Amino acid sequence: MDWLTTVDHKKIGILYFAAGGFFFIVGGIEALLIRLQLMFPMGANGESWFLTGQTYNEIMTMHGTTMIFLAAMPLIFGLMNAVVPLQIGARDVAFPFLNSLGFWTFFFGGVLLNISWFTGTVPDIGWTAYAPLSGSEFSGTGSDYYAIGLQIAGIGTLVGGINFLVTIINMRAPGMTFMRMPLFTWTVFITSGIILFAFPALAVGLIYITFDRLFDANFFVTATGGNAVLWEHIFWIFGHPEVYILILPAFGAISEILPTFARKRLFGYSSMVFATALIGFLSFMVWAHHMFTVGMGDIANALFGVATMLIAIPTGIKVFNWLFTIWGGKIQFTTAMLYATSFIPTFVMGGVTGVMLAIPPADFQFHDSYFVVAHFHYVIVGGIVLSLLAAVYYWWPKMFGRMLNETLGKWSFWLFFSGFHLTFFIQHFLGLWGMPRRVFTYLPNQGWDTANFVSTIGAFFMAAGVIVILLNVIISIKGPKAPADPWDGRTLEWSIASPSPEYNFKQLPLVRGLDAFWLEKMDGKKEMTPAEPLGPIHMPSASILPFFMSLGLFIAGFGFMYRGYEFDSAFINNLFGNNIIAICGLAITLVCMFLRSVYDDHGYHIEVEELQKEG
Amino acid sequence: MNRWHLWKRIIPLLMVFSLLLTGCSLVGQGSNPIDPKASVAEEQYGLILLSIGIMILVVIVVFALYFYAIVRYRRKPGDDSIPKQVEGSHKLEIIWTVIPMILLLILAVPSVALTFSQDEDYSDDPEVIQVKATGHQFWWEFEYSDLGIYTAQDLVLPVNQRVQFELTSSDVIHSFWIPAMGGKMDTNPGMTNLLYLDTPAEPEVLLGKCAEFCGESHALMDFKVKVVSQEEYDTWVANMQAPAAVVEADVKSGEELFKQNCMSCHAIDAGTPGLGPNLKGFADREVVAGYLEMTDGNIFEWIKKPEEFKGKTVEMPAIPLDDNQFNDIVQYLKTLKLE
Ligand code: HEM
Ligand SMILES: [Cu+2]
Fold it and tell me: pTM to 2 decimals?
């Protein structure tokens, strides 16, 4: 019950981790099924050896959608919640209630999407859901699950982004100027800015497609004057920034972990900040590089191609700064550091293929081939997942107060890392040899059989790596207790106990420079100098309303989805057909909103005596 | 103990390395972008090679710095000293901003040039063959606009010719791709896209594909490009334009059944498109339904239950006949030869 009502950012962070981790495993199982199907080519009489085309397309769609929206995003949000307020020396986020609402909408959106597995109408349109394939003429209820599930989950992301913008602007500890902010916080700040502009585009697109499907509007229906390519523009105006929403915090985590374990400050801090901001800006200027083959014409293709190549420059600055951070350092290879250092070459390999894809005439050959599948897994798995795993090993002690086992950690690393390259490196070649993506089977003897076989073997290595990680997490429940500062850290979160107390900082710390805690330690101090006298701490009260508000949306989603559906029972038909379910769902949400506005809750205080008792 | 540690590092490296090697020895035998057979694909291949070259250079530099750093700057056991805290270096940072800029410039100039030159429109050029290709779930229709010929699945072209394609779709978005001849272009419903490609210098059969996810049987939406000598092409055109021949007595029943059950969608003269693939010259085709070997058994199975091959979203309905009747239709279809 505590978990359903919590508004504590650290607990919400753990909730994000649990849900995101769960969906990551679901998406991973889907990935294994995909690879298993592609292990062998089509049989002599055209038969598929394992999955039908329909099932494959469903699994492929759910894999992509799940990994992006329900695994990578929430894991990033989990990190943001667990780390950012501590790094800036704040007691909480700006809007704790909204924070909880954000989690629950994401969670119910994700559940809604996955319920499709049990109703038998799974989205089968790819995670990009191109119109008119996703319209009512060419696809079934699965597309409604996609549109409505993501709509609900998207609310959570938008709300979360706004929350972190305000938190970082308003709640930094005394003395922490913008240019003294740890780089992870910087990247979260820029990412939140991107969310603010990108997610509304997705919301609008999903509303259009829902209206097309449910109410016979014709935004994307060409037969009645709509425009199918419009969806592609809307989707990628959201979709391209989305990948930067994911990768920037990953960059941030790497920028924290490398200095800690190399015992050096980050090389070129200010250029890192500048590069991050520049990438954030450019991410909105290049969406059409996903659409070179749409027929936009030479001028648009040339412009978007060159603009895309430009992103390589700030990204390159980052890579070299990281290299020179460890250069001359004293590197200690903990598991976190193994993941973080392996990120560098892997991400660079993903980055250079990105530049190759930015060449329009070459992309005419690469587009929608396995070259693209290889590229985006190098950046998403090699970039985001490797750095997420680094971050998990790094901040785990702070979040849970327990250490993860280092030996298991190294096993997991080597399994996952070698499996990753085994799976995806060869897919570059598959692409160059002409294998299109999103195919459920392929004709034999095109030179693809061995490569596909190898790729599948690699996927099982990765799965083994993930199993070892899970094992490690389970063992850590009884593992050794974590000290406050296990890694000799540099930033504020390491100056308080692990796990941190609910109010984070008994007294707000005084920040005297970049790497605030490190500076104090170098001056021979053990703790931060407080910026205020000990006083009562104001805390927000827990609330169940966010849970019910999201539940209401979830129910309403179902109501809308099945309003035109024929059920066996006349009673149920009535409920859905007359929108009674939908209206009930919305009513629950509205009532909760009403309660929230009329009922003044000022929270409570933790008094000084209590704080002193805890030591 | 130490030895074991070493192996833990080397084994994965070996794995990656052996992968590289297999990569090189496995060069695909299909119709593919890095085995270009005609000029458009060759130009694109040139750019691909240039970019791979530059990228390998970048990767080598980064890897060299990286491996040097992680080997050279490991913390020795018991070493608790604190390294110098370097803030940064403007000189270095300028270097690694400027060098990538130069590399990108080297890449961007030919890219932009080719982007423009490959976007030429030859629709009004009488020397150039005009073909209208239309994507359907899950087959391809080709109309030779100047010749009044409709055909499907097999695209016949003469050697050494420029072809201007006009691309569109009748349902969802597909993408028209002949990897060995050049890059792809989407076919969007309600719009037309232009794409020109050149044909190879020698006769050969190339594989074409649909490259945009278009539904249940997207993977099976292949077609064949038959590149033939100019004389063969001319004969083919003449034969396609000739009216359908009268069939022999022993396939009369098959013809009857075809007329009753199939004609509503499939035309057998090349002058009209038909709702489904035009079947003129069907027996000369390389494959059934775009991907199945051309055998009696496969034709039989396909017309009996198309949904078992291309799924429930395929636009060809199952036809309520018995096996003998299907057999008669197969016999009839096999007479649909040119000349
Ligand atoms: C064990 C690890 C993984 C394996 C073996 C794997 C495998 C695959 C394969 C083979 C495809 C191509 C499907 C096709 O084109 O037919 C695919 C698509 C995709 N994957 Fe993964 N994947 C893995 C992990 C991930 C992760 C961690 C993410 C993101 C965080 C991810 C994101 C995607 C996306 C967005 C797509 C595109 C789906 C679409 O085209 O609609 N994958 N994956
Ligand atoms: Cu298609």
Answer: 0.93
